Amino acid sequence: MTFHLNLEQLRKQAKELARTRGVKLTTAQFELAREHGFTSWPKLKAHVERLGAEQPFRSDVEYYEGRAEGIATTSGVRIDDARRELARRHGFSSWRSAAS
């Protein structure tokens, strides 16, 4: 059986944990993050958000450069904007971090 983390479910669990234990939400979020092996709620949240991002299946930059050019052409946006969007889809904060 495959287990998928879901941010909405994690938020609900944290709220329920805070309510039942009588602790602040941030304390419950921290406890929940630790249960999943993360040092903080923001790190757990970032991980779950990356799981939802389009996952790369190729490693050559030329392929992604071509995709960015295609996005720019079909969407009528600048190439830099297309690169940024493509990097975001793959869970990266910038084109530079995706291309390295």
Protein model, in words:
The chain is mostly helical. The chain has helices spanning 7-21, 25-35, 41-52, 61-75, 79-89, 95-99. The longest helix has 15 residues, at 7-21. It is elongated, with a radius of gyration of 18 Å.
Topology of this protein?
Blueprint: H1 7-21, H2 25-35, H3 41-52, H4 61-75, H5 79-89, H6 95-99
Helix pairs in contact: 1-2, 4-5
Task: Compute the number of strand runs.
Answer: 0
Instruction: State the helicity in percent bands.
Output: 55-70%
Class of secondary structure makeup: mainly alpha
Number of helices: 6
State the major sheet: none
Terminal-residue CA separation: 34 Å
Topology pattern, helix = H, strand = E: HHHHHH
Return the average pLDDT rounded to an integer: 81
Q: Work out the radius of gyration.
A: 18 Å
Q: What spatial form do the alpha-carbon principal axes imply?
A: elongated
Strand content of the residues, in percent?
Answer: under 5%
Ranges where pLDDT stays below 50 over 5 or more residues in a row are: none
Brief write-up:
The chain is mainly α and 100 residues long. It is 69% helix and 0% strand.
Characteristics of this structure?
100 residues; mainly alpha; 69% helix; elongated
